[in-house]
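Moderator note: this is an archived Q&A kept for reference. The question asked for a predicted structure of one protein chain; the sequence and the answer are reproduced below.
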Amino acid sequence: MKLNRSRGPRRPPRIILLGPPGCGKTDYGRRIAEKYKLQYVKISHIMKDLIRTEGKSAKGKDLKARLETGQPFPDELVIDIVRQRLNKPDCQINGWILDGCPTTPEQIIKLDDLGIIPSLVVVLD
């Protein structure tokens, strides 16, 4: 039996990595991204860059304090950063691996509302 497959272009992979701290998300994410030429999007790295650019502003100080104490970042900020990054051409063309989001049920709902739907979710323990 032959399957009828579309001759149209396939969508690039969109992968979300989930798991507790220290389970290997970063290592596996980088390896997969390198092997399949995907963009590796790690939220904590983006946040550190944002803190650096915000400098000594009130927003920068608040984000830095949250990062140092392990407090979660505001959902609106995280979702906005994810939306901006995943809408860039490199992610749209090559596909992406997202590490560090979603971390709450609210973030899952907001990603779904924005149409950011993964083709695969990998949960590590």
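Archived answer notes: The radius of gyration is 16 Å.
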